[in-house]
Each structure stands twice: as structure tokens, then as C-alpha cells.
Amino acid sequence: MSCKMINVALPKGRLGEKVYSIFAKSGYECPSILENNRKLVFENEEAGVRYFWVKPSDVPIYVERGVADIGVAGKDILLEYDPDVYEMLDLKLGKCRMVIAGKSDYHEDPSRTLRVATKFVNITQNYFYSTGKNIDIIKLNGSIELAPLLGLSDVIVDIVETGTTLKENNLVILESILDISARLISNKSSFKFKYNGINKIISSLATVIGGKND
Ligand code: PRP
């Protein structure tokens, strides 16, 4: 039935505001969302949507378990956690790159195992596995750029958006691993049981972002 509410997990923070604005332009406004900065659940009954603000890396968990029918997560998060969800649409927002970076005077020492600091253990492992290189992964949770500066690692695998963080810490890009952007994801059974509602949201979003989606 098309009258069922669609629960949407939005990533809290910079990306979330941009994402909300394309939902609003697509006909799914919920003005109170911009007024209240501690509240986490917002609803527009008429438009049939309920939004939750979720930590970006938790979006796939809410969607996979079905408490959110759809959500928005970066391709980095999807590749890292490999959730059992449908990836429906590239929102072409939150564009950035996953790169290998190191100190500007970095030279690889082939006699030692390369030490790589990152938040993205699986992406890093898969990438280096595909190159046949054996590495020592050091999992960090933030401020990854510190690791090579303090000698904790030789290089890092991290996200670069403007490049400012690397530049201000005298680090340079050694190699680009992948292009990232925000994706709309759907819970698999919600897509079946709330097909009309979800499909309507996806086609409205696709129109707003230029209809260039496959
Ligand atoms: C991300 C990323 C870089 C920074 C890149 O960090 O890990 O540190 O943004 O952006 P820039 O190229 O525009 O400078 P985030 O702000 O998510 O915080 P973190 O240190 O917790 O990873």
C-alpha cells in the first residue's frame, strides 16, 4: 500500500544537510529538521516520510535491519561494511576519493613490511591484496594523518575531499584507490513491501539530481 510511511536514515553532519536538501527539493520536506539540532526523529505525515539522523557509518546497519527502509551512505562505508542492502542510486553528493598518502619525502623500503594506518581496514586489505603486496594494517578511528607524522605508520589510506588536511600536515597523495559519492540504499524486504513509496522517492530524487542515473 502506498500510504505506508517510509523511514529514512540520513547521515548526520555535513553530508546529511546536503542530502536532506535534495529530499526537500524532491517533494519530501520536513522543515522542523533544520530548526532543532538535538532531536533525532522528524516526520512529515502528509509526504509519508519519517527521517532519523544517524551516525554516517551506522546508516547501513539501520537499513540492513529494516528499521529504516532507505538511507544514504557513502560508497566508502558500503564497500567497507558490505551490508546486505540494495544500492539504488548515486546521489552525486559528498564526492571525494580514497587515497594512499604519505610524507612528501616518503620512499618505500622494500626490505620491510609496509605499515598502513586506516579506518578502512577491508578496503585497504582488498586493495593491497589485489596488488599482491603484504602489509601491516594499523586500525585507527580518526585523525589518521597523524600516523605517518609520528612514525606510527609509513602511509595511510584515507578520504580526501578538499586536500586541506593532507596539505596542512605535509602529506601528499601517493595513489588514488577509488572515487566515492553518496548512495541511496534500500532494505531488501522494504523494497518489496513498500515498493510504490520507495520507488516514488527514488524517481523524484533522480529527477532532481539530473536523471543521469543508471
Ligand atoms: C576526513 C578524512 C580526512 C579529512 C579530509 O576526516 O579522514 O581527515 O576528512 O578532508 P579534506 O581533504 O577536505 O581536508 P573527518 O573529518 O571525517 O574526521 P576523522 O579525523 O575523524 O576521520
Q: How much helicity do the residues have?
A: 25-40%
Number of strands: 11
Overall 3D form: elongated
Please tell me how large the radius of gyration is: 19 Å
Q: Main sheet, how many strands, which sense, barrel?
A: 6 strands, mixed
Q: In order across it, which strands form the biggest sheet?
A: 2-3-1-4-11-5
**What's the quaternary structure here?**
single chain
- Uncertain runs with pLDDT below 50, 5 residues or more? none
Ligands: 1-O-pyrophosphono-5-O-phosphono-alpha-D-ribofuranose
The N- and C-terminal alpha carbons lie at a distance of 26 Å
The averaged pLDDT comes out at: 94
Question: Strand-residue fraction?
Answer: 25-35%
Q: List SSEs in N-to-C order.
A: EHEEHEHEEEHEHEHEEHH
Q: What's the tally of helices?
A: 8
Structural class: alpha/beta
List key phrases describing it:
8 helices, 5-stranded mixed β-sheet, 11 strands, alpha/beta
